[in-house]
Amino acid sequence: MSTEESTTGRRVLMGRVVSDLMDKTVTVEVTRTVKHPRYQKYVTRRKKYKAHDENNEYRVDDTVAIQESRPISRQKRWIVVERR
Description:
By secondary structure, the chain is an all-beta fold. Helices cover 0% and strands 55% of the residues.
């Protein structure tokens, strides 16, 4: 998925919802490819982010855009912006 800048200067990432078991929270997995410095092959890197979902409307396997925000809880620093 991709990284882009929003008008507020906060990062926006695209990812896939891998868990929706928590209340008002979804876990989003962001996948990116990077070139290995020595072997020059493209390697997949994945990272999971916990994102705020106010109305519990997103389900597993939805592709969503998440945006940086102020800390909402100990682990949540992202908000789900839209479904793509």
